[in-house]
Predict the structure of tRNA (guanine-N(1)-)-methyltransferase.
Amino acid sequence: MKLDILTLFPAMFEGPLTESIIRRAVEKGLLDIRLHQIRDFATDRHKVVDDAPYGGGDGMVMKVEPIAACLEAVKVDRPEARVILTSPRGRLFDDAAARELAQEQEIVVICGRYEGVDERVRELFVDDEFSIGDFVLTGGELAAMVMIDAAARFIPGVLGSPGSAESDTFSDGLLEYPQYTRPAEFQGVAVPPVLLSGNHADVARWRRHKALEETLQTRPDLLEKAVLDRDDQRYIAELKEDACR
Ligand code: SAH
């Protein structure tokens, strides 16, 4: 996947893109990430990238011209790129959106700052606007990193074990079951015996039940959209009955 990021703070990407799994993905050529300093595309002597909002009000708004010029330069060798704007007003970025992005060959992400970007950026150039949650960040950089990280996990070859993205939380609409590793007992807390039993069917059933319990307890909203078979439904009914007692 070819990723072009438009930002006023390219140094922020140092770290998230240069460590661990994402670093390896870059080294393997699975991710090709280029950072573009929007300020380099301001044409005036002082390299101004923001201005006061029309109509008054607090803060500054990112000007349309430097972003437009930067996009134009990027699009020369990324003609097919899907252009994404980070914004708290956007569609909520979730597991489905991460999978969707992982299918793309070319993505451009625009990182806003201050009070956000001039609305004409959105009108003229943006294909999708994404929010990473119902809160306001100081800039789009962290949102871009979150989206890139989540999407990268679905690009074949990025994760060491290909199955792991599929067993993770949200892949089947449920939260993941609890995980344990050695030692078998720590500070008096033992690993559930079924996980040591070697009985794969029992382990699978226990994990499924735990996933259902976790989801019912913390995110009951997810159960409405999850794919549940008859056993799942029966187990949930039991859990609800127990809770009423
Ligand atoms: N005045 C704007 C907020 C601007 S925050 C408003 O009320 O909607 C500055 C920049 O941070 C935004 O332009 C956007 O790029 C980024 N940002 C803030 N919160 C975000 C979120 N939840 N998801 C994605 N990007 C966000």
Notes: Strands lie at 2-7, 32-37, 50-51, 61-62, 82-92, 106-110, 128-131, 185-186, 189-190. Residues 127 and 216 are 35 Å apart (CA to CA).
